[in-house]
Amino acid sequence: MLHTKSESDITSLAPSSPSRSPKRAVYYVQSPSRDSHDGDKSSSMQATPNFNSPMESPSHPSFGRHSRNSSASRFSGIFRSSSERKGNRKRNDKGWPECNVIIEEGNYDEFDDDKGFTRRCQALMAVCGFILLFSVFCLIIWGAGRPYKAKVAVKSLLVSNLYVGSGADFTGVPMKMLNVNGSLRISVYNPATFYGIHVSSTPVNLVYSDVVVATGQLKKYFQGRKSHQTRDVHIEGTKVPLYGAGSNLVVSDNAVQVPLTLEFEISTRGDVVGKLVRLKHRKRISCPLTIDSTSNKPIKFKKDSCTYS
């Protein structure tokens, strides 16, 4: 049975025909361009078609020619801009690209001043510490060397000439004169184990009733550590006026006995640490004796014959 189509049916079915579909509407979307970062307000216009189905919308993945072209253009633009920036960089002598130097603002002199002040303080503290340690060391050495005093002993006195005669002083007053010539032997021992000593003495005097009738001098010398030395001192007195003390002398048959006193002082100096640490000791010696003009034997001194102070 044949149905005849009405005019209204033909009209309703006409738009569904793909061959007679009307043209799609086109609208434009404004998107920010890459140059808008630099402040340029220009914009680019891109035509976007009106899609009638979800399959034709841009949200659906499309592998068409349009999407491939847009992606390629975006990536090529990125690589092209980066390669252009790299190509514009200057290179130094070693081939490395030159970079702009970042100049920091601010004055750093105050930090340099603080560092200099700190270094000066550290140097001053180091010097003070060294001086303190060295002083303590010298004090220890000085205290350790104090007990080592030189030991002095008078051994003997040999008188080769003793003569009492009459004469006059420089004013012409008559009085007795005394001539003495002899040699004194002294022994010095240095017990120090780590330093030597310099030995000297005051004039070695023979005194008769407060009158010095003969004198001598010990020559200065250096004596090593833990050493023992013996020195001879020449004593001499010629035509020494005795003034009023000569009246006590009795001369018989050119023989006379004269009571005398031997007096002198021994000084020792030990340089422990150069001239910085020195140890000094003094010892005063006094020995009473009687000289007989007729005897040529040396006078021996025992330990208790002299006073050491």
Number of helices: 3
Task: Give the helices and strands as they follow along the chain.
Answer: HEEHHEEEEEEEEEEE
Structural class, from secondary structure content?
alpha+beta
Q: Report the C-alpha radius of gyration, rounded.
A: 62 Å
Our measurement of the CA-to-CA distance between the termini, rounded to an integer number of angstroms, reads 169 Å
% residues in beta strands: 35-45%
Q: Roughly what is the average pLDDT, rounded to an integer?
A: 75
Described by strand count, sense and barrel closure, the largest sheet is:
7 strands, antiparallel
Oligomerization status of the protein chains: single chain
Low-confidence blocks of residues: 1-22, 33-48, 59-68
Q: What is the approximate shape?
A: elongated
Number of E-type strands:
13
Helix proportion of residues, in percent? 10-25%
Describe this structure in words.
The protein is α+β, with helices and mostly antiparallel strands and about 300 residues long. Helix content is about 20%, strand content about 40%. The strands form three sheets. Strands 5, 6, 7, 8, 10, 11 and 13 form a seven-stranded antiparallel β-sheet that branches. Strands 9-4-3-12 form a four-stranded antiparallel β-sheet, with no helix packed on it. A hairpin with a 2-residue loop joins strand 6 and strand 7. The longest helix is centred in the middle third of the chain and has 37 residues. The chain is elongated.
Features:
309 residues; 4-stranded antiparallel β-sheet; 3 helices
Layout of helices and strands:
Layout: H1 7-13, E1 26-31, E2 44-49, H2 65-88, H3 109-145, E3 151-168, E4 174-190, E5 197-201, E6 204-208, E7 211-216, E8 221-223, E9 227-241, E10 257-273, E11 277-292, E12 299-300, E13 307-308
Antiparallel strand pairs: 1-2, 3-4, 3-12, 4-9, 5-8, 5-10, 6-7, 6-10, 10-11, 11-13
Transmembrane segments: 123-145
Biased composition (Polar residues): 42-60
Organism: Forsythia ovata
